[in-house]
Amino acid sequence: MDILTQQLINGLVLGSIYALVALGYTMVYGILELINFAHGEVTMFGAMICLAVIGAIVSSGAEVNGLLIVSLGLLAAMAVCGALGFLIERVAYRPLRRAPRLAALITAIGMSIVLQNAAMLIWGKQYITFPPLLPLARYDIGGAVITNLQIFIVLLSCLLMAGLLLLIRHTRLGRAMRATAQAQDIAGLMGINVNTIISITFVIGAALAAVAGVMVSAYYGLAHYFMGFMLGLKAFTAAVLGGIGNIAGAMLGGLLLGLIESFGAGYIGALTGGFLGSHYQDVFAFFVLILVLVIRPSGLLGERVVERA
Amino acid sequence: MNGPPMTKWTFRLLALTLAMTACDKKAETASGTAGGETTVKIGQISPLTGPQAHLGKDNDNGARLAIDEINAAGVLLGGKKVKFVLVSQDDIADPRTATVVAQKLVDQRVAGVIGHLNSGTSIPASKIYLDAGIPQISPSATAIAYTAQGFKTAFRVMTNDRQQGKVLGEYAVKNMGAKRIAIIDDRTAYGQGLADEVDKAVKASGGEVIAREFTTDRSTDFLAILTSIKSKMPDLVFFGGMDAQGAPMVKQLQSLGLKAKFLGGDGVQTAEFLKLAGNNAEGVTASSPGLPIDSMPGGKEFRQKFTDRFGTIQTYAPYAYDAVNVMVDAMKQADSAEPARYLAELPRIQRAGVTGNISFDEKGDIRGGAITLYQVKGGKWEVQETVMGDADPKK
């Protein structure tokens, strides 16, 4: 029983990180019908910038509370990534908005490679460690262990997601975003500045990705210029699982994917009598993606079936 | 069909391309004998990008140091002064990429190859070198399969996993007093090979293997497998894999409140592991083939030279350095950098290298390599014990 609880905890933490990243994919897709493959790299930038800020504060020798340092790093990462998201849209996607869809997709992949290599040049090929600034506490729940960091990750993710849902459903900006997603040209005719709305969408998505990046680096204790790639793919899978373009779907998809991976890796060996081992953990994500695409192409919560080149 | 401006552009482009190809050709032929000295290319392949880039760069630097020293000392082959050039390629620790870049080096007519870093890349690439007749000396591939193929071009200056795994398994049971042992590996040729040998040695020494779990060489999340291991209550967890996975694994092991000891192979026994695992590294035990760097015959001197130029040694740099020297020694004995000629000399080489005495057995494995066990104490790898490998490994 305690193993079950523990795998549930592991999966929830992983899932809430996936969900945060998946939101960025789904928001951009909802508005532009573009898969922003550079989004995973934005997550990586978030982690790197946070670590750079933390490193600078720590090496300056200032006597600051660890929690405050990490918070500063997180805010800096959100700000820089927000700007990065804005820049990516402005430079790479806006000029191609009326171009064939494939051109934008290829640009997105290109952008991802550019960002990855830029990070490699700026921060090097080494792993960067997350300094032990946060006080670590462990709690025992019926034999399973949960750390304060894990609780914090899940809570912060839920908070951010709830905030985003409120923003989209109950504010003027949210209404403008929904209108732009439904019909860009008409929204423009109704007096909505479509370009601004699209920029804001990118900025919000990128800032959420930055939070996820910081969470990943704090959770695993490492950051690396390569880390965004797999995370991005998984989050994309989560977004498709929930129904791409659907905000609540991305959250559900992220959480489900985290749980599937965690339980999959924990039990597959026993279930298949050792035929499939736990190294198939990553395969689950993509197996689920294929299943969803075959059985329910619009995703779990997706309403419309997307048919585009 | 094209308008005039288009045609003009096409012509210009064509002219430019031709000019560039011409330059290329010139460079190609010039590389043979420039200014009275012959240029000999030696290839070096390791992951220079990706999660193992730090180890790959370490090998590259070790080889570069050797090449520069050899050039400074000057070598005459066939009465002509020879300048060695290191041609490095990046295999991103990926077996498929490894064969592509291996073929690239063969096409560039390198005289020999130092590499690859990983067993998983050295093995598929070795077939390409065999077909091209180019000698390959791996500084760090330890999988048994590498030399078990019977390729006459494959050599290594590193003790293999049969010896290392045996020592690790026995050490876990006899010296660390573990009875219930969980084994995790990263499913690479290296990790899996080492884990299999440890598995055998643990059972032979009277220990029990209570779990075999697997991960990949790109993962950072091991909570799921560690949770399922935890339920089986192990005394010790052995990990066959690299530092980039080992460090977060140790961290997660402790965050789950799993009180088992952690044991690793040479992939874990690196400076990077200490950096990545931080305080969590304390008490971790790992082995490394060969002697500790300060006990190596030329260790202190090498460390000085290396750190002055490149910074901290990760693990294998001294082996890459020795591998280059062994290759050049063979060329000197053959008085030729022609692969077919100096390949015949390699099995007869005797060199007092930085890492110890180097000579190869009939399989291309190093004779009598040692294995050293280290434990992290106060944030440093401290030598626990050095076990001498069999002088004549039974194959």
CATH topology tier name of the largest domain in chain B: Rossmann fold
Characterize the main sheet of chain A.
2 strands, antiparallel
Mean pLDDT of chain A: 90
Q: Choose one word for the global shape of chain B.
A: elongated
The arrangement of helices and strands of chain A along the chain is HHHHEEEHHHHEHHH
Q: Number of helix segments of chain B? A: 13
Strand order of the largest sheet of chain A: 1-4
**In total, how many beta strands of chain A?**
4
The Cα radius of gyration of chain B reads: 23 Å
Helix content of chain B: 40-55%
Broad structural category of chain B: alpha/beta
Please estimate the helix content of chain A. Answer: over 70%
Order of helices and strands of chain B: HEEHEEHEHEHEHEHEHEHEHEHHHEEEE
Which word captures the global form of chain A? globular
Q: pLDDT below 50 for ≥5 consecutive residues: which ranges of chain B?
A: 1-6, 18-31, 391-395
Give the helix/strand class of chain A.
mainly alpha
Second-tier CATH architecture of the largest domain in chain B: 3-Layer(aba) Sandwich
State the fourth-level CATH superfamily of the largest domain in chain B.
Answer: Response regulator
- How would you sum up the major sheet of chain B? 7 strands, mixed
Regarding quaternary structure, what we see is heterodimer
